[in-house]
């Protein structure tokens, strides 16, 4: 944790192809994983991976974005950019978790929701919106972990948690720095400058009250010592699940509401004299 | 006594609405859809709808509210809630102040209580002249307060959306307003209260992916562009031109995302009808 990186360097670490991904976390931290597929209305979206597994002997629902590692996998998973079917599958799994009283753990690593023709036709916006609304009132604990890059509504759609944690070198932002620079300055080449201004690092987000905790990474990034990173994530999940377990469903959802309610709250200006 | 105040309020809204409806430039106005010229006065008298082809020009928030509310019923909420700059983004303050001067608005949304056909409701409208109606912390906060007010006062809620999406200069905190407003709507939903979402040109990005898509009843203005990703981004992604009418209100109707496409001239009566249909305590 000693080296300080520039924001652009952190973005590069967050996107490192060898960084542990959701499949690594599932095989490393959970047992008895059963993958659940499909949105029950039209399609299976491989960009979202979800299912039931056991964590320290207890059943939980695990959901996350999947990028894949080889080019073939990347293509199958649409480089981790889900469509509405993926978000609807995620919601289906969350509702089921509620029914069976399983906590939900989400792993977020996505360039964003897919901006495609079919995604629009099938209501990308509606699917994300529905997830935000339903996650805010889900009665079981929700633990969201941003492991790589968490961009746009596509990341937030899995991120309305009682606890939102970030790996130290993960990033969380309204969109990619390239997209940000291109919208604001019409110049995607200024992405390094954008990264600095966007305050997308875990330390920035903790300070802004957007996340609840940082999971430390080994020196140089999680990809250099995946086993150590894995252990840190495991400890964080165990700690936060234990904390959330002690609260009643009512207290938990009320606290979840208040947490997001406070973000960007503005006090009314004083009456002008 | 109440009458005097009601008349004063009616005048106040009418004055602000007139300012909103003021179309600068020459005497003649060219319609971007049909290309025909119309007298500005004729367009203004027609609710800013093209008399030839029915194109709906974007309109300001105060004017929008004046076209649907009963005269004199408008009471603005949270008037003192101003713009924020949570990331202290370079040059943003100055741009906000300039937008405030140009539009006379404090931020991109106006919220109020009022009546339509005598039915009381909480109502809000985004204004695309202010930073493209984008979702800032102030917009998120005002909308959340309006929703919470509706929950507390047990009133139905109507929101008119017009937004380019996120407010870039407020970064991640703009994104969080999506969660905040959607969570507030979950509470409105739990309270069994009605939410009518009206999508106007354009409704895109984070607004589409949050409160605007969560109406019990979804309405849209004719020809409004409605989508998550903007057409240019999609075109870049897929590398081909988009089909005619893609993401327009009629397209969304066809694909099952809105209940009805309602022309501006019929909006007030449609909202009145919906409020009547949801009136509590009616007996057969």
Please give a structural write-up:
The complex is a heterodimer of chains A (273) and B (284). Chain A has 273 residues and is of the alpha/beta class. Chain A has helices spanning 7-14, 22-29, 71-76, 84-99, 117-121, 124-137, 152-156, 177-185, 191-198, 202-207, 226-245, 249-261, and strands at residues 31-35, 48-55, 58-65, 104-110, 142-151, 163-167, 171-173, 213-215. In chain A, strands 1, 2, 3, 4, 5, 6, 7 and 8 form an eight-stranded mixed beta sheet that branches. In chain A, β5 (142-151), α7 and β6 (163-167) form a beta-alpha-beta unit. The termini of chain A are far apart. The mean pLDDT of chain A is 95. Helix content of chain B is 40%, strand content 16%. Chain B has a single domain, classed as 2-enoyl-CoA Hydratase, Chain A, domain 1, CATH 3.90.226. In chain B, the strands form two sheets. Chain B has a seven-stranded mixed beta sheet, with helices on both faces. Chain B has 284 residues and is an alpha/beta fold. In chain B, α6 (171-190) links the parallel β6 and β7.
Q: Please tell me what the overall shape of chain A is.
A: globular
Count every beta strand of chain B, where a strand is a DSSP E run of 2 or more residues.
9
CATH superfamily of chain B: 2-enoyl-CoA Hydratase, Chain A, domain 1
What distance lies between the first and last C-alpha atoms of chain A, to the nearest angstrom?
50 Å
Q: Strand share of the residues of chain B? A: 15-25%
CATH class descriptor of chain B: Alpha Beta
The structural domain count of chain A equals 1
Number of domains of chain B: 1
Say which CATH homologous superfamily of chain A is assigned. 2-enoyl-CoA Hydratase, Chain A, domain 1
Structural class of chain A: alpha/beta
> Which protein chains are joined by the largest interface, and how many residues does each one contribute?
A-B, 53 and 58 residues
Radius of gyration of chain A: 18 Å
Assign the CATH architecture of chain B.
Answer: Alpha-Beta Complex
> Which CATH-level-2 architecture of chain A?
Alpha-Beta Complex
């Amino acid at each position: 944790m000693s080296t300080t990186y520039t924001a652009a360097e952190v973005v590069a670490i967050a996107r490192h192809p060898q960084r542990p991904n959701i499949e690594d976390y599932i095989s490393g931290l959970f047992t008895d994983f059963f993958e659940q597929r499909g949105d029950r209305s039209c399609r299976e979206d491989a960009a979202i991976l979800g299912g039931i597994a056991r964590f320290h002997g207890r059943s939980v629902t695990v959901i996350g974005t999947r990028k894949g590692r080889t080019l073939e996998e990347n293509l199958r998973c649409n480089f981790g950019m889900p469509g509405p079917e993926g978000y609807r599958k995620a919601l289906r799994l969350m509702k089921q978790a509620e029914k069976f009283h399983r906590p939900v753990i989400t792993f977020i690593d996505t360039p964003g929701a897919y901006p495609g023709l079919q995604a629009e036709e099938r209501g990308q916006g509606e699917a994300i919106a529905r997830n935000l609304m339903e996650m805010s009132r889900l009665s079981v604990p929700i633990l969201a972990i941003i492991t790589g890059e968490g961009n746009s509504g596509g990341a937030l759609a899995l991120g309305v948690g009682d606890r939102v944690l970030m790996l130290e070198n993960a990033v969380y932002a309204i969109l990619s720095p390239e997209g940000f620079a291109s919208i604001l300055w019409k110049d995607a080449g200024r992405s390094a400058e954008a990264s600095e201004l966007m305050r997308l690092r875990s330390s920035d987000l903790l300070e802004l009250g957007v996340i609840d905790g940082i999971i430390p990474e080994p020196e140089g990034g999680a990809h250099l010592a995946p086993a150590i990173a894995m252990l840190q994530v495991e400890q964080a999940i165990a700690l936060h699940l234990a904390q959330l377990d002690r609260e009643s469903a009512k207290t938990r959802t009320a606290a979840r509401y208040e947490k997001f309610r406070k973000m960007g709250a503005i006090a009314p200006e004083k009456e002008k004299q | 006594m109440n009458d005097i105040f009601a008349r004063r309020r009616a005048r106040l809204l009418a004055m602000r609405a007139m300012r909103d409806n003021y179309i600068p430039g020459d005497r003649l106005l060219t319609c971007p859809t049909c290309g025909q010229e119309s007298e500005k006065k004729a367009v203004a008298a027609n609710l800013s709808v093209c008399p030839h082809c029915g194109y709906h020009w974007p309109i300001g928030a105060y004017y929008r509210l004046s076209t649907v509310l009963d005269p004199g019923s408008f009471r603005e909420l949270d008037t003192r809630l101003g713009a924020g700059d949570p990331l202290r983004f370079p040059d943003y303050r100055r741009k906000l102040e300039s937008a405030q001067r140009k539009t006379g608005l404090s931020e991109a949304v106006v919220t109020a209580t009022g009546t339509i056909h005598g039915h009381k409701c909480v109502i809000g409208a985004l204004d695309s002249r202010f930073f493209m109606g984008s979702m800032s912390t102030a917009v998120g906060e005002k909308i959340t307060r309006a929703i919470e007010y509706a929950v507390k006062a047990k009133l139905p809620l109507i929101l008119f959306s017009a937004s380019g999406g996120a407010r870039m200069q407020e970064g991640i905190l703009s994104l969080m307003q999506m969660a905040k407003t959607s969570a507030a709507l979950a509470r409105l939903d739990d309270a069994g209260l009605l939410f009518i979402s009206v999508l106007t040109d354009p409704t895109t990005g984070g607004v589409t992916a949050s409160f605007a898509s969560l109406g019990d009843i979804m309405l849209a203005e004719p020809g409004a562009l409605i989508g998550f990703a903007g057409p240019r981004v999609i075109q870049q992604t897929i590398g081909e031109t988009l089909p005619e009418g893609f993401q327009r209100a009629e397209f969304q109707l066809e694909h099952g995302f809105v209940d009805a496409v309602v022309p501006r001239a019929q909006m007030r009566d449609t909202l009145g009808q919906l409020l009547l249909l949801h009136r509590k305590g009616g007996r057969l």
